[in-house]
Amino acid sequence: MIENGGVRVREARCCLLCGGEGVQLYSDLRDRLFGAPGIWSLMKCSKCQLVWLNPQPISDDVGKLYARYFTHEELCAHKRALMGLRETLKANILKASYGYQMNGSNRMLELILSNIGPLVDIAGGGVLYLKACEIGRLLDVGCGNGLFLDQMRRLGWEVVGVEPDEKAASVAVEKLELEVFCGSLKDAKFPDGHFDAITMNHVIEHATDPLELLKECRRILRPGGKLVVVTPNIESLGRRVFGNAWLHWDPPRHLFLFSSEILRKLAELAGLVILEMRTTAKGARGVLVESNLIKRDGTRKGDLTETPVASLRLQGLAFQAIEHGLCRCGKVGEELVMVATI
């Protein structure tokens, strides 16, 4: 067994999808976000363009890469609350565009905000584009510390989570009193056709076998139900601008990264029917700020109140607006959004 900084790994030189030999995209990469050990490379398939981490950690050692991950944080009251100064804007959009009956909404404000595309996308992303008329039994795969599930429960959904990270799962269970299975989706052994909706928000790129993960989602999704997958887009504007400093490479936690065509192929191989495949600029502002820090310092850490970072945040707003406009004519948003059914 090979070791990489104390993490047991295996070489992964061939494509998971087509078996084609990969070519090295970037090498000598270290964790730029949470200080996980090891030196890593990214490979790209010359045939289907799938990107993957090499070497790949073995399943038993994956937890070592998440020792200081952000989902371990406990949730402050103001973060848990659905309402607030900023959330009032979301409430109006969610009522107008997604049908949720929420306090603090105003008809005139609803009409105004629901016509501002970037704001609608941000608010919609907060509920993973699920509408009030679809309320039922919801499973969030990779639910982390449970913030999303807590919000959806407040909106009327019957919620369940799956989270392999014990520290993150304990926050969701102990602090938010959520029903969360700690382990893999397969080990949870949910019944066939059990869920009306399944969500995976920045999860599939962490999976050791994304195809098997989608197949298991298909099995437990009811006919006509929705699977919503959000994941980084390797064809995004941010990736083109920042190259190996792009935030969403996130070595060594992102094991596979996708374009819209690769994700479509995976879903079809899993037996899913695509309802929607698009990209969103929802996270573009943060990508610009943090990718710039990685490019400058080799890490995103630092004093986020320093003047250059404040300036970057203004640049990030402009970057997000530009990217949102470009998404209308091309799939260049930072995130892929796939909605599928059976």
Can you put this structure into words, describing what you see?
With about 350 residues, this protein is α/β, with parallel strands linked by helices. Helix content is about 35%, strand content about 25%. It contains 12 helices and 14 strands. The protein has a 7-stranded mixed beta sheet with strand order 9-8-7-10-11-14-13, with helices on both faces. It has a 4-stranded antiparallel beta sheet with strand order 3-4-5-12, with no helix packed on it. Strands 1-2-6 form a 3-stranded antiparallel beta sheet, with no helix packed on it. β10, α8 and β11 form a beta-alpha-beta unit. α11 crosses α12. It is globular, with a radius of gyration of 20 Å. The termini are far apart. About 5% of the residues have low confidence.
